[in-house]
TrEMBL record:
Keywords: Signal. It comes from Chryseobacterium caseinilyticum. Residues 1-24 form the signal peptide. This is Lipoprotein. It comes from the Bacteria.
Amino acid sequence: MRASVLIKSSLLTSLFVISSCATTKYSEDISQNNYSNLKTGKIYIVEKKDGSPKEKILFKNIVGDNIVGTKGKKDSTEVTIPKSAVASVKDRSTARVTGGAVVIGAAAVAAIVISSNRAD
C-alpha cells in the first residue's frame, strides 16, 4: 500500500513540475523567434546569451531588432535589449503563481504520504 501511494504522489508532483514551465526560450535565428507573446505592461526577466546578469524589465514594445522597456514600474530608465542577445524570457507573475502551486502540491503530497503511513 505504501509503495502505491508513494508512486502516485511522485507522479502527481512531477506533473506539477512539468506543467509549471513559465520560461520562453529563443533560438540563435532571430527570424524564427516569436516575440508576439510578450505583453505590454508586464514585467519580464530577460536572460542573455552572453551570461551577463539577468535583467528585469517592464516591457513596452519591440522596435526593429530590439526589445524596449523600462527597469520597473517606479524606475523609468529605458532599457534596450537586442533580440540577438536574448536567450530566454521569463514571465515573473507566472513564475510566482507556479512557485506557489508547486509548494502547495508538495505539501499535499507530503500530507498524503504521512497519512498513508499512519493508516497502515
